[in-house]
Amino acid sequence: MHIPLENFTAAIPGHRCWVHILDNDTISDDGTGIFSHDALLRISIPWDSNLKPEKCRRFLHPQWQLLHLNESSLNTSEPDTEPCVDGWVYDKSTFPSTIVTKWDLVCESQSLKSVAQFLFMFGMLLGGLIFGHLSDRFGRRLILRWCFLQAAIADTCVVFAPSFLVYCSLRFLAGFSTVALLSNCVALIIEWSVLRFQAMGMTLVTCSHSIGHIILGGLAFAFREWHTLQLVVSVPFFVLFLSSGWLAESARWLIVNNKPDKGLKELRKAAHTNGIKNAGETLTMEVLRSTMQKELEAAQNNPSVYDLFHTPTLRKWICLTAFVRFAISMLHFGLLLNIQHLGSNVFLFQVLFGIISLPGSCLALLAMNHIGRAGSQTIFMFLSGVSILLLTFVPQEMQTLNAILATLGMGTSSTSVTCSIAHTNELFPTVFRARISGILVITTCVAAALAPLLMTLAVFSTHLPWIIYGVFSILAGFVVLLLPETRNQPLPDTIQDVENKRKGLRKSKEEDTCMKVTRF
Description:
The protein is mostly helical. About 65% of the residues lie in helices and about 0% in strands. Helix 8 runs antiparallel to helix 20 (about 400-425) and helix 19 packs antiparallel against helix 20. The radius of gyration is 28 Å and the shape is elongated. Residues about 510-520 have low confidence and may be disordered.
Protein backbone atom coordinates (compact mmCIF):
# COMPACT_ATOMS: atom_id res chain seq x y z
CA MET A 1 0.00 0.00 0.00
CA HIS A 2 2.87 2.42 0.75
CA ILE A 3 4.73 1.87 -2.52
CA PRO A 4 2.01 3.38 -4.79
CA LEU A 5 0.96 5.86 -2.08
CA GLU A 6 2.61 8.82 -3.82
CA ASN A 7 0.31 8.34 -6.80
CA PHE A 8 -2.07 10.29 -4.54
CA THR A 9 -0.02 12.12 -1.90
CA ALA A 10 2.33 13.43 -4.62
CA ALA A 11 -0.19 13.83 -7.44
CA ILE A 12 0.44 16.82 -9.70
CA PRO A 13 -2.79 18.81 -10.08
CA GLY A 14 -3.45 21.29 -12.85
CA HIS A 15 -1.68 24.59 -12.21
CA ARG A 16 -0.80 27.98 -13.64
CA CYS A 17 1.08 31.08 -12.55
CA TRP A 18 -0.40 33.35 -9.90
CA VAL A 19 -1.31 36.71 -11.46
CA HIS A 20 -2.34 39.90 -9.69
CA ILE A 21 -5.29 40.69 -11.92
CA LEU A 22 -6.94 37.33 -11.20
CA ASP A 23 -5.82 36.08 -7.83
CA ASN A 24 -5.46 38.98 -5.40
CA ASP A 25 -9.15 38.81 -4.31
CA THR A 26 -9.72 42.47 -5.18
CA ILE A 27 -11.43 44.27 -8.04
CA SER A 28 -9.66 43.66 -11.33
CA ASP A 29 -7.42 46.27 -12.89
CA ASP A 30 -10.03 47.27 -15.45
CA GLY A 31 -11.97 48.89 -12.63
CA THR A 32 -15.35 47.81 -13.91
CA GLY A 33 -15.37 44.09 -13.24
CA ILE A 34 -17.08 43.45 -16.60
CA PHE A 35 -14.50 41.00 -17.94
CA SER A 36 -14.98 37.31 -17.37
CA HIS A 37 -12.48 35.05 -15.68
CA ASP A 38 -11.56 33.44 -19.02
CA ALA A 39 -10.92 36.82 -20.59
CA LEU A 40 -8.64 37.92 -17.78
CA LEU A 41 -6.85 34.57 -17.97
CA ARG A 42 -6.32 35.06 -21.71
CA ILE A 43 -4.56 38.42 -21.24
CA SER A 44 -2.46 37.16 -18.31
CA ILE A 45 -1.23 33.69 -19.30
CA PRO A 46 0.12 32.67 -22.72
CA TRP A 47 -1.23 29.58 -24.44
CA ASP A 48 0.80 26.46 -25.12
CA SER A 49 0.82 24.39 -28.33
CA ASN A 50 -2.43 22.69 -27.26
CA LEU A 51 -4.18 26.06 -26.87
CA LYS A 52 -4.26 25.72 -23.09
CA PRO A 53 -2.83 28.13 -20.51
CA GLU A 54 0.89 27.69 -19.91
CA LYS A 55 1.73 26.08 -16.58
CA CYS A 56 5.06 27.74 -15.97
CA ARG A 57 5.03 31.16 -17.70
CA ARG A 58 2.95 34.34 -17.54
CA PHE A 59 2.91 37.64 -19.42
CA LEU A 60 5.11 40.34 -17.99
CA HIS A 61 2.21 42.80 -18.48
CA PRO A 62 -1.49 42.20 -19.23
CA GLN A 63 -2.03 41.88 -22.99
CA TRP A 64 -5.36 43.69 -23.42
CA GLN A 65 -5.11 43.64 -27.20
CA LEU A 66 -5.61 39.86 -27.16
CA LEU A 67 -9.28 40.46 -26.28
CA HIS A 68 -9.87 42.19 -29.63
CA LEU A 69 -7.67 40.17 -31.98
CA ASN A 70 -8.21 36.62 -33.20
CA GLU A 71 -5.35 34.22 -33.73
CA SER A 72 -5.03 34.92 -37.47
CA SER A 73 -4.61 38.67 -37.01
CA LEU A 74 -1.99 38.58 -34.29
CA ASN A 75 1.36 40.04 -35.28
CA THR A 76 4.47 37.89 -35.19
CA SER A 77 6.07 39.58 -32.20
CA GLU A 78 5.70 37.61 -28.98
CA PRO A 79 4.86 39.51 -25.78
CA ASP A 80 7.42 39.32 -23.02
CA THR A 81 6.87 36.54 -20.48
CA GLU A 82 8.40 35.59 -17.15
CA PRO A 83 8.46 32.57 -14.82
CA CYS A 84 5.94 32.20 -12.01
CA VAL A 85 7.81 34.47 -9.62
CA ASP A 86 4.75 34.90 -7.35
CA GLY A 87 3.88 31.22 -7.12
CA TRP A 88 1.16 29.07 -8.63
CA VAL A 89 -2.58 28.56 -8.51
CA TYR A 90 -3.60 24.88 -8.32
CA ASP A 91 -6.72 23.06 -9.42
CA LYS A 92 -8.07 21.64 -6.16
CA SER A 93 -11.11 19.90 -7.59
CA THR A 94 -9.52 16.43 -7.33
CA PHE A 95 -6.72 16.86 -4.79
CA PRO A 96 -7.17 19.74 -2.31
CA SER A 97 -3.55 19.33 -1.22
CA THR A 98 -0.53 17.17 -2.04
CA ILE A 99 3.18 17.48 -1.31
CA VAL A 100 3.41 19.06 -4.76
CA THR A 101 1.15 21.95 -3.76
CA LYS A 102 2.74 22.25 -0.32
CA TRP A 103 6.29 22.71 -1.60
CA ASP A 104 5.52 23.86 -5.17
CA LEU A 105 7.13 20.84 -6.87
CA VAL A 106 6.19 21.99 -10.37
CA CYS A 107 7.91 23.52 -13.37
CA GLU A 108 11.63 23.87 -12.60
CA SER A 109 11.15 21.91 -9.35
CA GLN A 110 9.04 19.09 -10.80
CA SER A 111 12.02 16.73 -10.86
CA LEU A 112 12.12 16.89 -7.06
CA LYS A 113 9.02 14.69 -6.97
CA SER A 114 11.00 12.00 -8.77
CA VAL A 115 13.80 12.51 -6.24
CA ALA A 116 11.39 11.70 -3.41
CA GLN A 117 10.23 8.54 -5.18
CA PHE A 118 13.80 7.55 -5.95
CA LEU A 119 14.88 7.98 -2.31
CA PHE A 120 12.03 5.74 -1.15
CA MET A 121 13.12 3.09 -3.66
CA PHE A 122 16.77 3.57 -2.73
CA GLY A 123 15.80 3.01 0.90
CA MET A 124 14.10 -0.22 -0.17
CA LEU A 125 17.28 -1.26 -1.95
CA LEU A 126 19.55 -0.68 1.05
CA GLY A 127 17.00 -2.12 3.45
CA GLY A 128 16.73 -5.32 1.45
CA LEU A 129 20.49 -5.75 1.47
CA ILE A 130 21.11 -4.90 5.13
CA PHE A 131 18.01 -6.37 6.74
CA GLY A 132 18.37 -9.54 4.66
CA HIS A 133 21.74 -10.17 6.30
CA LEU A 134 20.43 -9.21 9.75
CA SER A 135 17.46 -11.56 9.36
CA ASP A 136 19.76 -14.50 8.71
CA ARG A 137 21.91 -13.49 11.68
CA PHE A 138 19.38 -12.44 14.33
CA GLY A 139 16.17 -14.12 13.20
CA ARG A 140 13.05 -13.29 11.22
CA ARG A 141 10.85 -12.25 14.14
CA LEU A 142 13.17 -9.66 15.69
CA ILE A 143 13.89 -7.86 12.41
CA LEU A 144 10.22 -7.99 11.42
CA ARG A 145 9.13 -6.33 14.67
CA TRP A 146 11.81 -3.66 14.36
CA CYS A 147 10.73 -2.85 10.80
CA PHE A 148 7.10 -2.53 11.88
CA LEU A 149 8.15 0.04 14.45
CA GLN A 150 10.47 1.91 12.08
CA ALA A 151 7.81 2.10 9.36
CA ALA A 152 5.20 3.27 11.88
CA ILE A 153 7.38 6.10 13.21
CA ALA A 154 8.86 7.23 9.89
CA ASP A 155 5.62 7.24 7.89
CA THR A 156 3.66 8.94 10.67
CA CYS A 157 6.28 11.66 11.12
CA VAL A 158 6.14 12.37 7.38
CA VAL A 159 2.88 14.23 8.01
CA PHE A 160 4.66 16.72 10.26
CA ALA A 161 7.73 17.24 8.06
CA PRO A 162 8.58 20.98 8.10
CA SER A 163 10.54 20.87 4.85
CA PHE A 164 10.88 18.79 1.72
CA LEU A 165 14.35 17.62 2.83
CA VAL A 166 12.92 16.21 6.06
CA TYR A 167 10.08 14.61 4.08
CA CYS A 168 12.55 12.85 1.78
CA SER A 169 14.65 11.66 4.72
CA LEU A 170 11.63 10.15 6.45
CA ARG A 171 10.43 8.49 3.25
CA PHE A 172 13.90 7.00 2.84
CA LEU A 173 13.65 5.47 6.32
CA ALA A 174 10.17 4.18 5.54
CA GLY A 175 11.41 2.55 2.35
CA PHE A 176 14.35 1.10 4.28
CA SER A 177 11.95 -0.99 6.35
CA THR A 178 9.32 -1.76 3.69
CA VAL A 179 11.18 -4.55 1.92
CA ALA A 180 12.19 -6.30 5.14
CA LEU A 181 8.53 -6.44 6.16
CA LEU A 182 7.67 -8.34 2.99
CA SER A 183 10.72 -10.62 2.88
CA ASN A 184 10.49 -11.65 6.54
CA CYS A 185 6.75 -12.32 6.32
CA VAL A 186 7.40 -14.47 3.27
CA ALA A 187 10.28 -16.29 4.98
CA LEU A 188 8.15 -17.08 8.05
CA ILE A 189 5.28 -18.37 5.89
CA ILE A 190 7.58 -20.56 3.80
CA GLU A 191 9.55 -21.93 6.75
CA TRP A 192 6.45 -22.72 8.84
CA SER A 193 4.44 -24.30 6.02
CA VAL A 194 4.43 -27.89 4.83
CA LEU A 195 5.17 -28.50 1.17
CA ARG A 196 1.59 -28.69 -0.11
CA PHE A 197 0.62 -25.38 1.53
CA GLN A 198 3.63 -23.23 0.60
CA ALA A 199 2.18 -22.09 -2.71
CA MET A 200 -1.09 -21.27 -0.96
CA GLY A 201 0.81 -19.19 1.60
CA MET A 202 2.46 -17.15 -1.16
CA THR A 203 -0.88 -16.74 -2.89
CA LEU A 204 -2.39 -15.33 0.30
CA VAL A 205 0.50 -12.84 0.52
CA THR A 206 -0.12 -11.53 -2.99
CA CYS A 207 -3.88 -11.49 -2.38
CA SER A 208 -3.24 -9.24 0.59
CA HIS A 209 -1.29 -6.91 -1.71
CA SER A 210 -4.22 -6.82 -4.13
CA ILE A 211 -6.63 -6.04 -1.31
CA GLY A 212 -4.24 -3.31 -0.18
CA HIS A 213 -4.36 -1.70 -3.63
CA ILE A 214 -8.16 -1.75 -3.59
CA ILE A 215 -8.29 -0.28 -0.09
CA LEU A 216 -5.74 2.39 -1.02
CA GLY A 217 -7.86 3.48 -3.98
CA GLY A 218 -10.91 3.76 -1.73
CA LEU A 219 -9.04 5.58 1.04
CA ALA A 220 -7.48 8.00 -1.43
CA PHE A 221 -10.93 8.77 -2.84
CA ALA A 222 -12.31 9.35 0.67
CA PHE A 223 -9.34 11.30 2.07
CA ARG A 224 -8.18 13.76 -0.59
CA GLU A 225 -5.88 15.74 1.75
CA TRP A 226 -2.44 14.16 1.50
CA HIS A 227 -1.52 14.40 5.19
CA THR A 228 -4.82 12.78 6.23
CA LEU A 229 -4.30 9.90 3.81
CA GLN A 230 -0.71 9.50 5.00
CA LEU A 231 -1.85 9.20 8.61
CA VAL A 232 -4.65 6.78 7.81
CA VAL A 233 -2.28 4.28 6.13
CA SER A 234 0.60 4.75 8.62
CA VAL A 235 -0.98 4.49 12.06
CA PRO A 236 -1.98 0.80 11.58
CA PHE A 237 1.73 -0.06 11.65
CA PHE A 238 1.70 0.63 15.39
CA VAL A 239 -1.06 -1.97 15.78
CA LEU A 240 0.93 -4.46 13.71
CA PHE A 241 4.02 -3.82 15.83
CA LEU A 242 2.14 -4.55 19.06
CA SER A 243 0.38 -7.63 17.66
CA SER A 244 3.65 -9.04 16.23
CA GLY A 245 4.69 -9.87 19.79
CA TRP A 246 2.63 -13.06 19.42
CA LEU A 247 4.55 -14.20 16.33
CA ALA A 248 6.73 -17.29 16.68
CA GLU A 249 10.29 -17.37 15.44
CA SER A 250 11.03 -19.74 12.57
CA ALA A 251 11.80 -23.14 14.09
CA ARG A 252 13.73 -24.05 10.96
CA TRP A 253 15.91 -20.95 11.32
CA LEU A 254 16.54 -21.71 15.01
CA ILE A 255 17.59 -25.27 14.24
CA VAL A 256 19.80 -24.35 11.29
CA ASN A 257 21.46 -21.63 13.41
CA ASN A 258 22.44 -24.13 16.10
CA LYS A 259 19.58 -23.40 18.51
CA PRO A 260 17.75 -26.75 18.54
CA ASP A 261 16.37 -26.29 22.07
CA LYS A 262 14.55 -23.10 21.12
CA GLY A 263 13.48 -24.63 17.83
CA LEU A 264 11.98 -27.62 19.64
CA LYS A 265 10.15 -25.27 21.99
CA GLU A 266 8.59 -23.38 19.07
CA LEU A 267 7.61 -26.66 17.37
CA ARG A 268 5.83 -27.84 20.51
CA LYS A 269 3.95 -24.53 20.74
CA ALA A 270 2.86 -24.87 17.12
CA ALA A 271 1.76 -28.46 17.66
CA HIS A 272 -0.26 -27.45 20.71
CA THR A 273 -1.88 -24.59 18.77
CA ASN A 274 -2.83 -27.02 15.99
CA GLY A 275 -4.53 -29.33 18.49
CA ILE A 276 -1.94 -32.10 18.44
CA LYS A 277 -2.04 -33.96 21.76
CA ASN A 278 1.01 -35.31 23.59
CA ALA A 279 3.30 -33.06 21.53
CA GLY A 280 5.78 -32.98 24.40
CA GLU A 281 6.14 -36.76 24.27
CA THR A 282 6.33 -37.18 20.52
CA LEU A 283 8.46 -34.11 19.80
CA THR A 284 11.69 -34.85 21.63
CA MET A 285 15.28 -33.80 21.04
CA GLU A 286 16.11 -37.30 19.82
CA VAL A 287 13.34 -37.16 17.21
CA LEU A 288 14.46 -33.69 16.18
CA ARG A 289 18.09 -34.72 15.83
CA SER A 290 17.26 -37.80 13.80
CA THR A 291 14.88 -35.88 11.53
CA MET A 292 17.12 -32.86 10.94
CA GLN A 293 20.55 -34.37 11.46
CA LYS A 294 21.82 -32.96 8.20
CA GLU A 295 20.66 -29.42 9.07
CA LEU A 296 22.19 -29.59 12.54
CA GLU A 297 25.52 -30.69 11.10
CA ALA A 298 25.41 -27.86 8.57
CA ALA A 299 24.74 -25.35 11.34
CA GLN A 300 28.20 -26.03 12.73
CA ASN A 301 29.82 -24.75 9.52
CA ASN A 302 28.21 -21.26 9.65
CA PRO A 303 28.51 -20.50 5.92
CA SER A 304 29.55 -17.01 4.84
CA VAL A 305 28.53 -14.77 1.96
CA TYR A 306 31.67 -15.96 0.18
CA ASP A 307 30.21 -19.46 0.09
CA LEU A 308 27.08 -18.03 -1.48
CA PHE A 309 28.89 -16.76 -4.60
CA HIS A 310 31.67 -19.33 -4.56
CA THR A 311 29.23 -22.13 -5.32
CA PRO A 312 28.73 -22.27 -9.12
CA THR A 313 25.18 -23.59 -8.95
CA LEU A 314 24.00 -20.93 -6.49
CA ARG A 315 25.79 -18.21 -8.43
CA LYS A 316 24.07 -19.25 -11.66
CA TRP A 317 20.65 -19.49 -10.06
CA ILE A 318 21.03 -16.09 -8.38
CA CYS A 319 21.92 -14.42 -11.69
CA LEU A 320 19.00 -16.01 -13.52
CA THR A 321 16.44 -15.26 -10.81
CA ALA A 322 17.76 -11.69 -10.50
CA PHE A 323 17.16 -11.07 -14.20
CA VAL A 324 13.68 -12.60 -14.04
CA ARG A 325 12.75 -10.55 -10.99
CA PHE A 326 14.18 -7.38 -12.58
CA ALA A 327 12.22 -7.82 -15.80
CA ILE A 328 8.85 -8.57 -14.28
CA SER A 329 9.27 -5.88 -11.59
CA MET A 330 10.11 -3.24 -14.18
CA LEU A 331 6.87 -3.95 -16.02
CA HIS A 332 4.86 -4.20 -12.79
CA PHE A 333 6.11 -0.91 -11.34
CA GLY A 334 6.04 0.76 -14.75
CA LEU A 335 2.28 0.30 -14.70
CA LEU A 336 1.77 0.81 -10.97
CA LEU A 337 3.73 4.08 -10.67
CA ASN A 338 2.49 5.63 -13.91
CA ILE A 339 -1.27 5.26 -13.64
CA GLN A 340 -1.68 8.96 -14.45
CA HIS A 341 -0.40 8.14 -17.95
CA LEU A 342 -3.27 5.69 -18.43
CA GLY A 343 -6.18 7.99 -17.69
CA SER A 344 -7.48 10.84 -15.58
CA ASN A 345 -9.32 8.73 -12.97
CA VAL A 346 -6.38 7.51 -10.88
CA PHE A 347 -8.70 6.20 -8.15
CA LEU A 348 -10.47 3.88 -10.58
CA PHE A 349 -7.23 2.52 -12.02
CA GLN A 350 -5.84 1.86 -8.55
CA VAL A 351 -8.93 -0.16 -7.63
CA LEU A 352 -8.97 -1.97 -10.99
CA PHE A 353 -5.34 -3.02 -10.58
CA GLY A 354 -6.18 -4.47 -7.18
CA ILE A 355 -9.33 -6.23 -8.40
CA ILE A 356 -7.64 -7.87 -11.39
CA SER A 357 -4.77 -9.07 -9.18
CA LEU A 358 -7.10 -11.04 -6.88
CA PRO A 359 -8.22 -13.69 -9.40
CA GLY A 360 -4.67 -13.59 -10.74
CA SER A 361 -3.36 -14.76 -7.37
CA CYS A 362 -5.85 -17.63 -7.28
CA LEU A 363 -4.92 -18.49 -10.85
CA ALA A 364 -1.26 -18.50 -9.82
CA LEU A 365 -2.01 -21.08 -7.12
CA LEU A 366 -3.79 -23.37 -9.57
CA ALA A 367 -1.08 -22.99 -12.20
CA MET A 368 1.78 -23.63 -9.75
CA ASN A 369 0.09 -26.78 -8.45
CA HIS A 370 -0.75 -28.21 -11.89
CA ILE A 371 1.85 -26.75 -14.28
CA GLY A 372 4.73 -26.04 -11.92
CA ARG A 373 6.59 -22.95 -10.77
CA ALA A 374 8.79 -22.40 -13.83
CA GLY A 375 6.13 -23.15 -16.45
CA SER A 376 3.61 -20.85 -14.75
CA GLN A 377 6.05 -17.94 -14.77
CA THR A 378 6.77 -18.44 -18.47
CA ILE A 379 3.08 -18.37 -19.40
CA PHE A 380 2.17 -15.31 -17.31
CA MET A 381 5.28 -13.32 -18.23
CA PHE A 382 4.59 -13.95 -21.89
CA LEU A 383 0.97 -12.80 -21.49
CA SER A 384 1.95 -9.65 -19.60
CA GLY A 385 4.61 -8.80 -22.18
CA VAL A 386 2.21 -9.27 -25.09
CA SER A 387 -0.47 -7.18 -23.35
CA ILE A 388 1.91 -4.25 -22.93
CA LEU A 389 3.26 -4.53 -26.48
CA LEU A 390 -0.31 -4.40 -27.81
CA LEU A 391 -0.68 -1.03 -26.08
CA THR A 392 1.70 0.43 -28.65
CA PHE A 393 -0.75 -0.39 -31.48
CA VAL A 394 -3.84 1.02 -29.78
CA PRO A 395 -4.58 4.74 -30.39
CA GLN A 396 -4.68 6.92 -27.29
CA GLU A 397 -8.23 7.94 -28.13
CA MET A 398 -9.38 4.36 -27.41
CA GLN A 399 -9.07 4.80 -23.67
CA THR A 400 -11.29 1.84 -22.79
CA LEU A 401 -9.18 -0.63 -24.76
CA ASN A 402 -6.00 0.90 -23.33
CA ALA A 403 -7.40 0.46 -19.84
CA ILE A 404 -8.31 -3.19 -20.54
CA LEU A 405 -4.84 -4.03 -21.85
CA ALA A 406 -3.11 -2.19 -19.01
CA THR A 407 -5.29 -3.94 -16.43
CA LEU A 408 -4.62 -7.32 -18.04
CA GLY A 409 -0.90 -6.57 -18.03
CA MET A 410 -1.05 -5.63 -14.35
CA GLY A 411 -2.99 -8.78 -13.48
CA THR A 412 -0.63 -11.16 -15.27
CA SER A 413 2.45 -9.36 -13.94
CA SER A 414 1.12 -9.69 -10.39
CA THR A 415 0.54 -13.39 -11.04
CA SER A 416 4.10 -13.69 -12.32
CA VAL A 417 5.42 -12.02 -9.18
CA THR A 418 3.50 -14.54 -7.04
CA CYS A 419 5.00 -17.47 -8.93
CA SER A 420 8.47 -15.94 -8.86
CA ILE A 421 8.47 -15.37 -5.10
CA ALA A 422 7.25 -18.89 -4.40
CA HIS A 423 9.80 -20.37 -6.80
CA THR A 424 12.82 -18.50 -5.46
CA ASN A 425 11.98 -19.18 -1.81
CA GLU A 426 11.75 -22.89 -2.57
CA LEU A 427 14.90 -22.84 -4.70
CA PHE A 428 17.52 -21.52 -2.26
CA PRO A 429 18.74 -23.03 1.05
CA THR A 430 17.55 -21.88 4.46
CA VAL A 431 21.01 -20.70 5.54
CA PHE A 432 20.98 -18.11 2.71
CA ARG A 433 17.28 -17.61 2.02
CA ALA A 434 16.89 -14.18 3.62
CA ARG A 435 20.16 -12.88 2.17
CA ILE A 436 19.25 -14.04 -1.32
CA SER A 437 15.81 -12.49 -0.85
CA GLY A 438 17.62 -9.26 -0.02
CA ILE A 439 19.65 -9.52 -3.23
CA LEU A 440 16.50 -10.11 -5.27
CA VAL A 441 14.86 -7.19 -3.53
CA ILE A 442 17.76 -5.03 -4.71
CA THR A 443 17.03 -5.99 -8.31
CA THR A 444 13.34 -5.31 -7.68
CA CYS A 445 14.12 -1.86 -6.29
CA VAL A 446 16.46 -1.03 -9.16
CA ALA A 447 13.70 -2.02 -11.58
CA ALA A 448 11.18 0.02 -9.59
CA ALA A 449 13.46 3.06 -9.73
CA LEU A 450 14.12 2.66 -13.46
CA ALA A 451 10.48 2.05 -14.40
CA PRO A 452 9.28 5.67 -14.03
CA LEU A 453 12.57 6.99 -15.44
CA LEU A 454 12.01 5.00 -18.63
CA MET A 455 8.88 7.05 -19.20
CA THR A 456 11.15 10.01 -19.97
CA LEU A 457 12.06 8.17 -23.20
CA ALA A 458 8.56 9.04 -24.39
CA VAL A 459 9.97 12.37 -25.63
CA PHE A 460 11.65 10.34 -28.41
CA SER A 461 8.80 7.88 -28.93
CA THR A 462 5.63 7.45 -26.94
CA HIS A 463 5.79 3.70 -27.55
CA LEU A 464 9.43 3.14 -26.52
CA PRO A 465 8.92 2.70 -22.73
CA TRP A 466 6.11 0.19 -23.24
CA ILE A 467 8.15 -1.76 -25.80
CA ILE A 468 11.01 -2.07 -23.31
CA TYR A 469 8.63 -3.27 -20.58
CA GLY A 470 7.05 -5.87 -22.85
CA VAL A 471 10.25 -7.23 -24.44
CA PHE A 472 12.00 -7.68 -21.09
CA SER A 473 9.00 -9.55 -19.71
CA ILE A 474 8.93 -11.97 -22.66
CA LEU A 475 12.70 -12.58 -22.42
CA ALA A 476 12.40 -13.32 -18.69
CA GLY A 477 9.71 -15.89 -19.45
CA PHE A 478 12.24 -17.90 -21.46
CA VAL A 479 15.09 -17.38 -18.99
CA VAL A 480 13.10 -18.87 -16.10
CA LEU A 481 13.02 -22.20 -17.96
CA LEU A 482 16.75 -22.51 -17.21
CA LEU A 483 15.93 -22.87 -13.49
CA PRO A 484 14.96 -26.21 -11.91
CA GLU A 485 11.38 -27.01 -10.98
CA THR A 486 10.60 -27.02 -7.23
CA ARG A 487 7.00 -28.27 -7.16
CA ASN A 488 6.56 -30.94 -4.45
CA GLN A 489 10.30 -30.82 -3.72
CA PRO A 490 11.65 -30.57 -0.14
CA LEU A 491 13.07 -27.21 0.92
CA PRO A 492 16.87 -27.15 0.72
CA ASP A 493 18.50 -26.17 4.01
CA THR A 494 22.20 -26.29 3.10
CA ILE A 495 24.51 -25.75 0.15
CA GLN A 496 24.93 -29.50 -0.05
CA ASP A 497 21.19 -29.89 -0.60
CA VAL A 498 21.48 -27.59 -3.61
CA GLU A 499 24.41 -29.54 -5.00
CA ASN A 500 22.56 -32.82 -4.49
CA LYS A 501 19.55 -31.41 -6.34
CA ARG A 502 21.80 -30.33 -9.23
CA LYS A 503 23.40 -33.76 -9.41
CA GLY A 504 19.97 -35.38 -9.29
CA LEU A 505 18.78 -33.25 -12.19
CA ARG A 506 21.89 -34.08 -14.19
CA LYS A 507 21.49 -37.80 -13.48
CA SER A 508 17.84 -37.66 -14.49
CA LYS A 509 18.72 -35.97 -17.79
CA GLU A 510 21.42 -38.57 -18.49
CA GLU A 511 18.94 -41.38 -17.84
CA ASP A 512 16.38 -39.76 -20.15
CA THR A 513 19.03 -39.41 -22.86
CA CYS A 514 20.06 -43.05 -22.42
CA MET A 515 16.46 -44.20 -22.74
CA LYS A 516 15.98 -42.18 -25.92
CA VAL A 517 19.17 -43.63 -27.45
CA THR A 518 18.38 -47.26 -26.61
CA ARG A 519 14.98 -47.04 -28.28
CA PHE A 520 16.54 -46.93 -31.71
